[in-house]
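Quick one: DUF1993 family protein from Duganella vulcania, structure tokens please.
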Amino acid sequence: MSLSMHRVSVPVFVRGLKVLSELLKKAEAYAEQHGSVPDALISARLADDMLPLSAQVQRASDTSKLSVERLSGVPAPKFEDNETSFAQLQQRIADTIAYLDSVAESDFAGSEARAIKLNFGSFQPEFKGDDYLLTFALPNFFFHIATAHDILRNQGVPVGKRDYLGAYA
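--- reply ---
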């Protein structure tokens, strides 16, 4: 049995977003336990030239939903990137998962050969659908999840590899 583009994308993105949601729950609990201001965690960065935790969540959301849109042709919802609380970040994750779950496997028909052209200013890569998913979209998605994990760990939140791996650890 071969793997379908749907199976290699939607369930993988959903699982990653659920892991991210659990990381945020641990971060919120940590802030409450330690009397920390949640804003400090939400705005924390690993380095000055890196995006904060909130933006890592936003980029993981965007990468998953826009990847599925590009591959399936089903329009993704647009979010404003204005989340400033754990509750808002959790809602964004839930809304992203709802969109991903709404896209049918049949919408991915032929997506492995679909031409995907990205436009990031001077960076304009072009891919076939399967190469896009496997060499760009999934690595980008997991970069943002790993960076969110690393920001939280750097801020003292007790998360480790098992938290990153989720239910499989």
